[in-house]
Write a structure and sequence with these properties.
13 helices, alpha/beta, disordered N terminus, 401 residues, 12% strand, globular
Amino acid sequence: MQIYKHSPWRTVRLVQSALRRSFSYSPRRPAEEVRIIEVGPRDGLQNEKNSVPLNTKLELIRRLASTGVRTIEAGSFVAPKWVPQMANSADVLDHILAHPPAAQHPIAYNFLVPNLKGLENLIQVSEAQDPSIPKTLQEDPNAPPTPPATPEAESEEPAPITSTQDPNEMPSTTSGIDDPVQPGKSASVPFAVEISLFAAATEAFSKANTNCTIAESLERCKPIIALAKTQNIRVRGYVSVALGCPYEGPNVSPSKVAEITATLLEMGADEVSVADTTGMGTAPRTQELLKALSTAGVANKDLALHFHDTYGQALVNAVVGLEHGIRTFDSSVGGLGGCPYSKGATGNVATEDLAYCMHSLGAHTGVDVEKMAEIGKWITLELGRPNDSRAGKAILARLTP
């Protein structure tokens, strides 16, 4: 085992933690099961310069709920002066609670809460709407889609990620769909509200984004997670700039990212999304980071990967993650996104591109790529910006008479 250079007390604590925690070196999920987190309504829209109308946000969420995704990042309870685009997130939550979108499966709607006040505001909106609305579901909306039955016994070896189909055959763009809702019909299904919180992997980005040090930001996370647990709310953590920082450059310490990730999980986060906020990540450095996370005792099942496509490397890095055993990935319809605190960073990897790539490798996501492509075209027209999904545009061109 590789031991990274920490102070002696930190090294001892990491070793003890790795031995104590259950998220150490867990078996990999079969490659057929891949969970996609749709972040378009929050991370995708937050950097738009022109105010996006509330009705447009609600319509985007409604359409996305029909595609088969099981988690949608819907908004952020952040002070409007910092991120004006998210000023009406309370209205978004209120509408979801009162009029949950029709969907094929239970959906978790996630809201970013940067501080304790944000979570308190979220709880206040929830209880004002209907205190009886459950915050958890009997059917976990974050469970991976059910893969096709297989007679083969499970193996601890990583599942193959290449398709057994003819590679030259045009793959079905709706690969992986489970019992889709028929046109003209709606399905009333349970839903849940979750939260996410974040820390940064570099001191410079932490100070620019949260006006505090990494250690201070982690301290702020403790009461948020504690309150969420008393409310039975699932918590998702983010570690920003894990593969490159706009202030400190591309060489972010993998061991520091692993340390922060492990700390968030130890605090009680249910999952941590490790984010390439700037899009500086490359395949070798993604692989190095994933090895550091494994060495720190962080299990693949507790991780998600979040790639921006600034340098066109997002899909390459996602496949590296898939080969390593990661089965949860963030993406944004139409490639929407950017970061207010990272100049030059372009959008997230497009959901259409990610799903198409995973399907071509034989993976099962439950996402209807044709529907997603149509939504990508619609929302980018609404925003007056280019559609950055190459797969989405190709699919729509093929479908057009």
